[in-house]
Design a protein that fits this description.
The chain has 198 residues and is mainly β. The chain has one domain: Trefoil (Acidic Fibroblast Growth Factor, subunit A) (Trefoil). Helix content is 14%, strand content 37%. It is built from 2 helices and 12 strands, in the order αββββββββββββα. It has helices spanning 2-16, 185-197, and strands at residues 41-43, 50-54, 62-68, 79-83, 86-92, 95-103, 114-119, 128-133, 136-141, 149-154, 160-165, 175-181. The strands form 2 sheets. Strands 1-2-3-7-11-10-12 form a 7-stranded antiparallel β-barrel. Strands 8-9 form a two-stranded antiparallel ribbon. The chain is globular.
Length: 198
């Protein structure tokens, strides 16, 4: 009897000793490996919900693009998170990619001056900041305007990507104006508020 009690206490101690990022319940999603990581939805002009995805296999440099949410299994959806005003794409414990803003003004066939791409290294514009304003992903470019507009466009090669303009302008042909949203990161903010008030 004493042996069973000892085994039970050892098991409970071992389970509770496993480290977690937030609370025990936050382990329910894959995003809990990096607090605040979540799917980013592209809203605007689409009948079917769209989410940010990658043009390359997981963990490999490529363009940020979109895909229909209902065609993707939840385990296949790309997860993103903000850290120190920089946007990252979480693949797994060993692969976290930088989301870079590339200047494409000198690249023939690109429809807009800036494009989102992922890479193991930080590249492109460095004087920029990503932030959440509620659910909306907000991008500030250096000393420029405090709002950047996101578009889904196809380049001359027919590849879809996420492009950006620093000011509102007429939407170019073949492009769709979108807003980028995350709803899961609000849960993390709420958990932090609850923890600080306890």
């Amino acid at each position: 009897m004493l042996h069973l009690l000892f085994v039970g206490i050892t098991f409970i101690t071992a389970v509770l000793g496993i480290p977690t990022w937030e609370t025990f319940s936050s382990r329910a999603s894959i995003g809990s490996l990096v607090p605040g990581s979540s799917v980013i939805e592209a809203l605007g002009g689409y009948e079917v919900p769209q989410v940010l995805s990658l043009s390359a296999p997981p963990g490999v440099a490529g363009n940020v693009t979109i895909t229909m949410r209902r065609r993707s299994r939840s385990s296949d959806l790309a997860l993103f998170f903000l850290h120190h005003n920089r946007l990252f794409q979480f693949t797994n414990e060993t692969s976290i990619l930088n989301v870079n803003v590339l200047n494409t003004t000198a690249v023939e066939g690109e429809p807009m001056p800036y494009k989102l791409a992922v890479s193991p290294k930080r590249e492109g514009l460095r004087d920029a900041m990503f932030r959440w304003r509620g659910t909306l992903l907000h991008y500030e470019l250096g000393n420029g305007p405090d709002q950047t507009f996101f578009y889904v466009c196809k380049n001359a090669s027919g590849e879809t990507g996420i492009y950006m303009l620093a000011q509102a302008d007429a939407t170019p042909p073949g492009c769709t104006l979108v807003t980028l949203h995350s709803f899961n990161h609000l849960e993390l903010i709420q958990q932090r508020k609850e923890q600080s008030s306890s």
